[in-house]
Write a structure and sequence with these properties.
heterodimer; A: alpha+beta; seven-stranded mixed sheet; six-stranded mixed sheet; elongated; B: alpha+beta; BirA Bifunctional Protein, domain 2; 2 domains; three-stranded antiparallel sheet; 12 helices; 10 strands
Chain lengths: 791, 342
C-alpha cells in the first residue's frame, strides 16, 4: 500500500516531519519500507499563459508562442500539436533542471530564439502523457510555481502491511492510525449525492445464489455518463498510489478503493439486458475472458457475477473484457459488494492471479462499508462524468453482519503487558481507533466491521500495546522456568562428534538437502526419496536420502577450484519414505581425498588410502566409547572389495570405502575419494551416558614381541583374536608393528610382527610365567594357522 | 647544525642499517660488534642523542622520543638475535632453525552456521532454556493449524511452503516445536529449538530455500511482554555487545499476540545509516510476541492461567551480520576458501 502524505492530510491533521511520521507508524505495525519524495526538482517551473501562437517561419511543426509567466512575457518555441492561445501551461524557465535531467537554457530553434520550454506531463515526470504539452486548469494563477499550483510536492510512504490489517489498505485506514498515534481527530467528509427521480430498482434486480460466498451485493445505476480523461488532481492521486489512470469512471472506482479500501466495479449497463445481476458459483470447466484478454477456465471455487444468462465478471477478482466501460458507455452499473475472504482466496489461488481487488477482499473488506463506497463513487461520477444518479441503492444483504462485542479487562491488559494503565487511558486508546467501549465493570468494546482482526480480548490488548507504544513497556530481566534443565542428548553427542572431526582436520560442510532426483538415482539409493510437490526447480525436487550426493558435489566443486586435499564432513539429515510414512535421520558423512599430511619440509608426501579413513572412523568410535568393527559390505557408490560395513556391538551403523570409478565419473573427480556415511542417531543411542572407573593396575606389565609368517589370505584380525583368546586375563594389549612381504618370506605369505603386553591383576609376573604364556600363544598360532616364526 | 627533517632521516637510516646488520650477524662475537657500533659509548645512537641539544625546545621532545624508540627497537632486536645464536651454540654448534614449520596434521573448522548456532544456544542455555528438536518434514497441523493459521487464510502467504502432500510439508519455521513440546509437557516450559527450515522462495544473495532458525519460548503463570523484552535485550547484548540498542515494533504473526519485530541498531554503522541497514540505522533480526491463546487452546493449556512468549531468529541472518557476509548462498556452497575464514 502506497500512502500519500498529502492525501492523508485530507483525513487527519498532523504536523510531523515525514521521517517522524514514518517512525511512529512503523513502530505501531505499519512498516514503512521506503519514503519517496514527489514533485521535486520543479523549482523553476511555473504556470504560464499562452498569449499568442504564430507559425514558425521556417519549420512546419514548430510554433512560436508568446507566453506570460507573471512578471514578463517570454518568446518560446514549441513543437507540441496541442498548443493554443489562452491555454494555461507549465513553463520551465531558463535555469530549470527537469527531473529527467533536461537543462533549460536560452536557445535558438531554426533561427528563432526560445526563452524556456512548455512541458508535457512526462517531461515533468508527473504523468505519462507525452503526446503534447500539459494543459492546466484555466483558473490557475499565472506565475505560480507549478508544484504548489498542482499540489505536486508530496511524500509517498510505501507500507509493507501484515495480512491482518485490511483496513489499512486504504488512505482512510492509515489516517485512522495516524490520528490515534498523534492524538488527532479523523476528519469526516460529507458525500454530496443528488439523485434523480428515476428509480434504480426499475433498472436492475440483484439475486444472490451463493449468499455464503457473497453476503452482500449492492448496485447503483448512473446515466448520462460522459467518458473522458480524469482531472489532474485525481490522476495525481492514482500516480502517487502507483496506479495508472484509464478514464474518469474507472479512475473513480480506483480512487474510492484507495481512499476507503472498498473495491468497486463499474459495468457498462448495456450488458444487463436482462435487468438482472445474478451472483453464483462458476461451473467446473466454465470459460470466461477477463479484462486482461485472457480466457480462463473456472472451477466451483470461483464466484461469478452474471446477468442471469452470461458471466460479466469474476466476483471480487477481475472484470470481464466485454463488460468493461468503453468510450461510448452512457449508463454505468456500479457494483459495491462484500465477498467472503476464503472464497476469494480459493478462487484467486485457483486462477493464479492477485489483483488490488482480490487482495482487499481476501484479507477482509468491510461489509458495512459497502454503501458508503458506492455513494462516494456515484457522487464523483456525478461531478466528474456528468452522471445522473438514479434514485436508491439496489442492496441485497440477506444476513447482515453486525459489529462484534468483545470484553476487555483492564487488569488483564496490565497483567500481560506488565503496565499500569488506568481504565480511562485504555478507553481513550480504544476511542482513538474508533473502537467505542462501554464501562461495565470491565470494558465492553464494540468492534466495527472494518476491523475483522479484532475478535478477542488479546487482540484488543495488542491494540493497547501498539498505541501505548512497545517502547513504553518496561524491560524486565528475571530468572524463571525450571532450574533442572534436561540436556538434549543428541546435541551433546553431536558436539563431541564435530569437535573430534574438526580436530582430525576435517572441515564441516552444511548443504542443501533438496537435490536432483536423477543424481540420486545414479547413486543407487535403494530407498524411495521424498518428492516435493511444488519444487523451485527439477534439480531441487527431492529430499536427499544420502549425504553422499551433496558432499561429493562439495568435493567436486572444491577440486575444480584446485583444492587438492579435501577432508570434509557433514552431520545432516537424510530422508526417505517408509511405506507411506516419511522418515528422517541424522547421518554423519565423511569425504577424504588428496595427501595424508600437509606438505612438510622433512617428511615424504603420501596419498590418502582406506586406512586413513578407517583410522578416523575407528578413532571417532573410540572417542565416543563405542566398539568398532568392520566387515565386508556392499554399497552402490563404493568400489566392490573396497567397501566395508561399520558395526558397533553387532549393529550395522553404515559403510566406509573407496568411491567407485563410475561415481567418480559422475562427479568428474579424478583423484581417489574415500567415503563414509554413518547413522549418527544409532551411534548416539549407544554412546554410554555414564562411565565406571576400574582401579589402576598395581603390578608391572611385561612386553614380548613375535613375528609370524602366515598365508597372505589370513586376516590379521583372526590372529589378534586368537592371541586374545589364548592370553585370556593375562593379556593386556596387542600392537601390530610391522607387515612385511619380500626377502625371506615365501611368495603367497606375509610376516606380521606383534608386540604383546602381558599383565596380571594379582601379582607381578615372573619372566618364567610370561615366557610360558607367550609360548602358549605362539604354539596356538602355529597350530591354528600353520604360522611359522620369523626370527 | 642539521635540520629536524635531516635528523629524522638519519634515525630511519640507522634503523635500517642496524637491523640488517643484526640479522646478518652469525655469531655472538660479531653481534657484539654491531652492538658497540650502534649503542656503544661512541656509537651512532649515542652521538645522535648528544646532537639533540642543538635543537629548539619545541623540537627536542619529539626528536628525543624518536631516538629513544630507535634505541629500544635495536636493543630488542639484539637480544632476540643473541638468544637465537645461543640456542645454536647449545646444540653443540649446529644451528637450530626454530622458525622452520612444525609438524602436525590438518586443521579443520566448524561451519560458521554451527559456530553461530552454538553461540546462540549457549547464551540461551545460560538463561535457563532447555533444548528441544522437531522434524523437518512436518504436518500441516503442527506447522500451521495448531499455530492459528486457519486454512484459506492470507497469513499462510507469509511463508511460501514446500508441500509433499496436502497435509505434509517442509516446516517453514521452528515454531511447530512449540506445539510438540506443549503436547507433552505442562508449564513451566522454557525451551529453545534450533533447526532447519525451508521456504519456497527464489534463490538469490538474500534468500535461500533452506535456512536455520532458533525458536525460543517460555510459558508460566505470569510471563509478561516485559519479560520478552528483557530476555531478548539480554540476548542481543550478549551476542552483539552492550552498546547495541533494540527497537520493538508492532507486527503480526498468527501464533503470537501482541506480536513484535525486533530491530537492533545497525552493528555496521552504529545507527547512522549505511548500505547494510539500507540507510535506516536499524536491522531487523527477529520476530517475537506473546503466545496466542489459540495456540494454548490447541494444546489444552488454559490461557486464563498461563501466559508465555515466543521468538524466532535466523542463524544465517545473524552470521551474515556478524561476519559481514553479503551472499547467503556462500553458506551452502562449502567452498574451502570460505570455510577456512572462520
Amino acid at each position: 500500500m502506497k500512502a500519500s502524505v498529502r492525501w492523508l492530510k485530507e483525513f487527519v491533521d498532523f504536523d510531523l516531519p515525514v521521517e517522524e511520521l514514518a517512525r511512529r507508524i512503523t513502530d505501531a505495525g505499519l512498516e514503512v519500507e521506503t519514503i519517496t519524495a514527489l514533485g521535486q526538482g520543479l523549482d523553476k517551473v511555473v504556470v504560464g499563459e499562452v498569449r499568442k501562437v504564430s507559425k514558425h517561419p521556417r519549420a512546419d511543426k514548430l510554433s512560436v508562442c508568446d507566453v506570460g509567466v507573471g512578471s514578463e512575457n517570454l518568446q518560446i518555441v514549441c513543437g507540441a500539436p496541442n498548443v493554443e492561445a489562452k491555454a494555461k501551461v507549465p513553463v520551465a524557465l531558463i535555469g530549470a533542471e527537469l527531473p529527467g535531467g533536461i537543462q533549460i537554457t536560452k536557445s535558438s530553434l531554426r533561427g528563432v530564439d526560445s526563452f524556456g520550454m512548455i512541458c508535457s506531463e512526462k517531461e515533468l515526470e508527473i504523468g505519462e502523457d507525452e503526446a503534447g504539452i500539459m494543459i492546466l486548469d484555466s483558473d490557475l494563477k499565472v506565475g505560480e510555481p507549478i508544484s504548489s499550483a498542482l499540489e505536486l510536492e508530496d511524500y509517498v510512504l510505501d507500507l509493507d502491511l501484515t495480512p491482518n490489517r485490511p483496513d489499512c489498505l486504504s488512505v482512510l485506514g492509515v489516517a485512522r492510525e495516524v490520528a490515534a498515534l498523534c492524538g488527532s481527530q479523523l476528519k469526516r467528509s460529507e458525500i454530496n449525492l443528488r439523485e434523480v427521480a428515476e428509480v434504480a430498482q426499475d433498472r436492475v434486480q440483484v439475486e444472490i445464489a451463493d449468499p455464503a460466498g457473497c453476503p452482500r451485493y449492492a448496485a447503483r445505476v448512473i446515466e448520462g455518463i460522459v467518458i473522458k480523461e480524469s482531472p489532474f488532481w485525481l490522476k495525481r492521486k492514482l500516480y502517487a498510489a502507483g496506479m495508472r489512470p484509464i478514464n474518469n469512471v474507472v479512475d473513480i472506482t480506483n480512487l474510492v478503493m484507495l481512499e476507503l479500501g472498498h473495491p468497486l466495479h463499474a459495468f457498462d449497463y448495456r450488458l444487463f439486458q436482462t435487468k438482472k445481476v445474478v451472483v453464483r458459483r462458476a461451473q467446473e470447466g466454465e470459460k470466461f475472458v477477463t479484462l486482461d484478454d485472457v480466457e480462463r477456465t473456472l472451477n466451483k471455487e470461483v464466484l461469478l457475477i452474471t446477468d442471469g444468462t452470461k458471466p460479466v465478471a469474476i466476483g471480487g477478482i477481475m472484470g470481464g473484457l466485454e463488460s468493461e466501460v468503453s468510450p461510448d458507455t452512457r449508463t454505468v452499473l456500479l457494483e459495491s459488494a462484500y465477498f467472503d475472504p476464503r472464497v476469494i482466496r480459493r478462487g484467486r489461488m485457483f486462477l493464479g492471479i492477485s489483483t488490488e481487488s482480490s487482495q482487499r477482499f481476501e484479507r477482509g473488506a468491510d461489509p458495512n462499508g459497502v454503501i458508503k463506497a458506492l455513494d462516494r463513487a456515484a457522487a464523483l461520477m456525478q461531478d466528474l462524468a456528468e452522471g445522473e444518479v438514479l434514485k436508491g441503492v439496489v442492496d441485497n444483504y440477506p444476513a447482515p453482519i453486525h459489529p462484534v462485542k468483545v470484553v476487555l479487562r483492564p487488569k488483564r491488559v496490565n497483567q500481560i503487558l506488565s503496565t499500569n494503565l488506568a481504565a480511562e487511558r485504555i478507553k481513550n486508546i480504544l476511542a482513538s481507533l474508533d473502537l467505542p467501549a462501554r464501562e461495565n465493570g470491565d470494558l465492553e468494546v464494540e468492534v466495527p466491521s472494518f476491523r475483522p482482526d479484532l475478535t478477542r480480548e488479546m487482540d484488543l490488548i495488542e491494540e493497547i500495546a501498539r498505541i501505548h507504544g512497545y517502547d513504553n513497556i518496561e524491560t524486565t530481566l528475571r530468572a524463571g522456568g525450571g532450574l533442572v534443565t534436561e540436556v538434549h542428548w543428541e546435541d551433546q553427542v553431536s558436539r563431541r562428534v564435530k569437535e573430534f572431526m574438526v580436530g582430525r582436520g576435517f572441515f564441516e560442510a552444511i548443504t542443501n538437502n533438496l537435490v536432483d532426483p536423477e543424481m540420486l538415482e545414479k547413486l543407487n539409493e535403494e530407498v524411495g526419496p521424498i518428492h516435493i510437490r511444488n519444487p523451485l526447480s527439477q534439480d531441487l525436487s527431492v529430499l536427499s536420502s544420502t549425504l553422499a550426493h551433496n558432499l561429493l558435489l562439495v568435493v567436486a566443486r572444491n577440486k575444480n577450484r584446485l583444492e587438492k586435499d579435501l577432508r570434509i564432513f557433514e552431520l545432516g539429515k537424510v530422508f526417505w519414505l517408509e511405506g507411506d510414512r516419511p522418515e528422517e535421520r541424522l547421518h554423519l558423512g565423511l569425504a577424504l581425498s588428496g595427501t595424508r599430511e600437509p606438505r612438510h619440509w622433512e617428511s615424504e608426501e603420501a596419498e590418502i588410502d582406506l586406512f586413513d579413513l578407517k583410522g578416523t572412523v575407528a578413532g571417532l568410535f573410540e572417542a565416543l566409547s563405542l566398539p568398532f568393527e568392520l566387515n565386508p559390505g556392499d554399497k552402490g557408490i563404493l568400489e566392490s572389495g573396497r567397501c566395508f560395513q561399520v558395526q558397533t556391538a553387532g549393529e550395522p551403523i553404515g559403510f566406509i570405502g573407496e568411491l567407485s570409478q563410475r561415481v567418480m565419473d559422475i562427479f568428474g573427480v579424478k583423484e581417489k575419494v574415500f567415503w563414509a556415511e554413518l547413522d549418527f542417531e544409532k551411534m548416539a543411542a549407544r554412546v554410554p551416558k555414564t562411565r565406571r572407573f576400574s582401579s589402576l593396575p598395581k603390578f608391572p606389565p611385561a612386553d614380548r614381541d613375535v613375528a609370524v609368517v602366515v598365508d597372505e589370505s589370513l586376516l590379521s584380525k583372526a590372529i589378534e583374536d586368537k592371541i586374545k583368546e589364548v592370553g585370556g586375563d593375562l593379556l593386556e594389549s596387542i600392537v601390530l608393528f610391522d607387515v612385511y612381504r619380500g626377502r625371506q618370506v615365501p611368495a603367497g605369505k606375509k610376516s606380521l610382527a606383534y608386540s604383546i603386553c602381558y599383565r596380571s591383576q594379582e601379582k607381578t609376573l615372573t619372566d618364567g610365567e610370561v615366557d610360558e604364556i607367550h609360548r602358549k600363544v605362539i604354539s596356538e598360532l602355529e597350530r591354528t594357522f600353520g604360522a611359522t616364526l620369523r626370527s | 647544525m642539521t635540520s629536524a627533517t635531516e635528523f629524522k632521516k638519519s634515525v630511519e637510516q640507522i634503523r635500517k642499517e642496524a637491523l640488517q646488520e643484526i640479522k646478518g650477524a652469525n655469531e655472538l662475537g660479531s653481534l657484539d660488534q654491531v652492538r658497540i657500533k650502534y649503542l656503544g659509548r661512541k656509537g651512532s645512537i649515542t652521538s645522535l642523542l648528544k646532537g639533540l641539544k642543538d635543537f629548539s625546545e619545541k623540537e627536542r621532545p619529539v626528536l628525543g622520543q624518536l631516538s629513544n624508540q630507535l634505541k629500544g627497537n635495536l636493543e630488542l632486536a639484539l637480544s632476540t638475535r643473541m638468544k637465537e645464536l645461543e640456542v645454536a651454540v647449545g646444540q653443540e654448534g649446529e644451528f637450530f632453525d626454530y622458525t622452520l614449520p612444525g609438524r602436525g596434521g590438518w586443521q579443520g573448522k566448524h561451519h560458521p552456521i554451527t559456530q553461530v548456532n552454538d553461540r546462540v544456544t549457549e547464551i540461551f542455555y545460560g538463561m535457563g532454556f532447555e533444548i528441544a528438536r522437531g522434524p523437518d518434514v512436518e504436518t500441516d497441523y503442527y506447522n500451521f493449524s495448531a499455530l492459528n493459521f486457519p486454512p484459506d487464510h492470507p497469513a499462510r502467504d507469509m511463508q511460501d511452503t514446500f508441500y509433499i502432500k496436502d497435509d505434509l510439508l517442509l516446516r517453514t519455521h521452528t515454531s511447530p516445536v512449540q506445539v510438540r513440546v506443549f503436547e507433552k509437557r505442562k508449564p513451566p516450559v522454557k525451551i529453545i529449538a534450533p533447526g532447519r527450515c525451508y521456504r519456497n522462495e527464489a534463490i538469490n544473495a538474500r534468500s535461500f530455500c533452506t535456512f536455520h532458525q532458533v525458536e525460543g519460548f517460555y510459558v508460566d503463570t505470569d510471563v509478561t511482554f516485559a519479560d520478552l523484552k528483557g530476555v531478548l535485550s539480554a540476548f542481543v547484548w550478549e551476542l552483539f555487545g552492550k552498546d547495541v540498542s533494540l527497537r520493538f515494533r508492532a507486527s503480526f504473526f498468527p501464533f503470537t499476540e501482541p506480536s513484535a519485530e525486533v530491530d537492533i541498531s545497525c552493528v555496521i554503522c552504529g545507527g547512522k545509516g549505511c548500505g547494510v541497514c539500507k540507510q535506516k540505522g536499524w536491522l531487523e533480526i527477529l520476530g517475537a510476541g506473546m503466545i496466542d491463546p489459540e495456540v494454548f487452546k490447541a494444546v489444552g493449556y488454559d490461557p486464563e492461567v498461563y501466559s508465555g512468549y515466543a521468538f524466532g531468529l535466523g542463524i544465517e541472518r545473524i552470521a551474515m551480520l556478524k561476519y559481514r557476509i553479503d551472499d547467503i548462498r556462500l553458506f551452502f556452497e562449502n567452498d574451502l576458501r570460505f570455510l577456512r575464514q572462520f
